[in-house]
Specification:
It is built from 9 helices and 4 strands, in the order αααααβαβββααα. By secondary structure, it is α+β, with helices and mostly antiparallel strands. The protein folds into 2 domains: 99 residues, no CATH class; 105 residues, no CATH class. It is rod-shaped.
């Protein structure tokens, strides 16, 4: 069993060294006799030649094993990535269908809240954190928090929200209960139906602005 122990220790050598040994043993086995004579290798081959075949087979088998393991891991990783990408696409498709269904089933108050993106002409708007419509739209993944910070006031905590990117592309005025080309009366109706907290937030923003600019009238 001594040879087996030595073999195990030999296989612990770095792969580059084993590859070099395999290459050298291959050279000694298959070099033409003319080259062997020229390089004066015959005496060395006569002394150690009985080991070249065994060393070549063991080293080559080990390198082949390492190579096949590498190929297998790469192929396995490729299939896993393909499966993950396929699942991600399917999940994304399902999620879009769910969001589209939610957009077609908005309550009137939710529509009024989403109109604020249109009325304010902004990608990010300020809302009340605990508002029922805000929570509902976030749960439906139609909007999401644009930041982790909020500002606390007597009427509630004000946070920033933005539209889901898919919703931003899909949202249309008809989905919000408005004609494709709103008239002046439609816009007046929108102003009357705006969420109550919007006026509170705007009042705070105007107050902040007046404090930064003392010459700006509050009323």
């Amino acid at each position: 069993m001594e040879w087996f122990t030595k073999l195990i220790e030999w296989l612990k050598l770095p792969t580059k060294i084993i590859a070099f040994i395999a290459l050298m043993s291959c050279a000694f086995l298959f070099l033409p006799s003319k080259i062997i004579e020229t390089l004066k290798l015959q005496d060395f081959i006569d002394l150690y030649g009985k080991y070249f075949g065994v060393v070549f087979i063991v080293a080559s088998s080990y390198l082949l094993f390492i190579f096949l393991g590498f190929v297998f891991s790469k192929v396995k990783s490729m299939f896993i990535n393909l499966k993950n990408n396929k699942n991600a696409k399917e999940n994304s498709k399902i999620k879009k269908q769910q969001i589209q269904s939610a957009l077609c089933d908005l309550t009137q108050s939710e529509k009024c809240l989403l109109r604020e993106f249109y009325l304010q002409g902004k990608d990010v708007i300020k809302v009340i954190y605990a508002n029922e419509d805000v929570i509902s739209l976030i749960n439906k993944e139609i909007i999401y928090y644009a930041s982790e910070c909020g500002e606390g006031y007597i009427f509630g905590t004000v946070v920033n929200v933005r539209l889901n990117d898919y919703v931003k592309k899909s949202l249309s005025l008809p989905l919000l209960g408005l004609p494709a080309e709103p008239t002046k009366s439609d816009l007046e109706r929108c102003a009357k139906e705006r969420p109550a907290f919007i006026w509170q937030i705007q009042s705070i923003e105007e107050l902040k602005s007046s404090m930064l600019n003392p010459f700006h009238p509050i009323f």
